[in-house]
Every structure is written in structure tokens, then in C-alpha cells.
């Protein structure tokens, strides 16, 4: 089982399937994983296997590391398409997330004004006013919603604390459309139990919820790298395309990544 633990606070740039040339911003320690989910498909592995000993980067460390990398990229005429908050766990748990977002926007405006600022989040912290205010400032507020089925979430996303999907759906509506829904579709088994979420029993309730949230876009994707849990499999191109087309039929832009 191989996993990816990213450098901190800056990594890349990497070529994202969905976002283009992406410079990563990792607000978690560089020697482990800190996340409010413990997804069975996470490329960073299980939380328990990667407990960090180092501290999160400070706001100042993030600022100076990002500025240094942007200066280097500008000297090479290789500016990023996007500055992406991702890495070794949930970025919005950083105690200075709001301030770091403001710093990043200021640096973006100075060095690469054409670039988008994106946040990849599992949405567990969006009931906090400071987190919601910060996410309203970014270009791509990408929030995870793998399903609306609480039992599936417990088995697959495996929240590490209290998680009420109905409450978070209501919080997603507060963004008034300034939100991109990201959903992982896959197949496979955990402990001999089917955890595929591509059937109508999962897709149709999810689709109704997406309509109620009314996002600016939906991203459906599937497994791209090795997973910490065995016996998981990619959704096929045809399966993802069918789900994508259901979303588009509702008048919501949707892309599928294979």
C-alpha cells in the first residue's frame, strides 16, 4: 500500500485533472496527515498510519513560502493556473485559515492575477462563520459531497467527529451558488460489504440535493491513485458520463474526471 504525503506548506506545481497547472498549498504538517475525514480511498492513507510529529505551518511561513515560489515560477515564465489548498488533510481546520486566504489572494493579485484560488474541502468546517467567509472569497470553493446517505458516509468517508450531512447541506445552500460540488464515485467492497455508490439508489437522492444546493458547477470523479483500503475500483467512463449527463440535464454545468 503506497500513499502520498505532501511537502508543506507549498508543493508542486502539479498538473491537475480538473484545474490545470496547480501550485499546492498544504496547511497541515509535512510529516503526516490531519483530517476530519478518514476516507477509505484517500491517497494520503489512513489517519492512524500517518500521525504527524511536526506542527502546522504558521500563517507567516505560508506567506513567505508562497511568495518565494511565485517569484521563482515567474522567473521561469511558468505561472500557475490555480493556487490550490489541498495536501495532507482538511485545510479549513488551520486556526488561521481565514487570514491565510486573504494573504493568498493578495499574493495572487501581485504575482499571477490570472490564476484562480481554489480550496478542496470535505465541508466539515463550513458551519463556522470564519471558514464560510473565507470560502466566499476564493474563486473555486470546492466542497465534497460523496452521498447524502449517512450510513455510506460512516463506512466510506468515516468522519472523525460529529457529522450531520443534513446540517452541512443546509450550510452549503448559504453560499448562494458560490460552490462547486465534488463527488467521488467508485465501486468495490469493504469487509465484504458493497460500497459502490453509482446505482440510482445513491445517485438520484444525491442529484435532488445538488439541485437544492444549486452550485455553479459539479465535478464527478473516480479513483486515480492507489487507495489505502483494498478491493476498491474505479467507476467506468460510461458510468461517470451517465451521472454527468443527469446533472447537466438539470441545467448545472458538470465535468467528469476519469
Could you spell the SSE succession in H and E letters?
EEHEHEHEHHEEEHEEHE
Q: Please state the average pLDDT score.
A: 96
- Largest sheet, described in full? 8 strands, mixed
Helical element count?
Answer: 7
The multimeric state of the shown protein is: single chain
Identify low-pLDDT runs. none
Gyration radius, rounded: 18 Å
Structural class, from secondary structure content?
Answer: alpha/beta
Give the amount of beta strand, in percent. 15-25%
Number of DSSP strands?
11
Fraction of residues in H or I helices? 25-40%
User: What separation lies between the terminal Cα atoms?
Assistant: 21 Å
Spatial order of the strands in the main sheet?
Answer: 1-2-3-4-5-6-9-11
Q: Can you describe what's shown?
A:
By secondary structure, the chain is of the alpha/beta class. It is 33% helix and 21% strand. The chain has an eight-stranded mixed β-sheet with strand order 1-2-3-4-5-6-9-11. The longest helix has 17 residues. The two termini are 21 Å apart.
A few lines on this structure:
The chain contains seven helices and eleven strands. The protein has an eight-stranded mixed beta sheet with strand order 1-2-3-4-5-6-9-11. The protein has a three-stranded antiparallel beta sheet with strand order 8-7-10, with no helix packed on it.
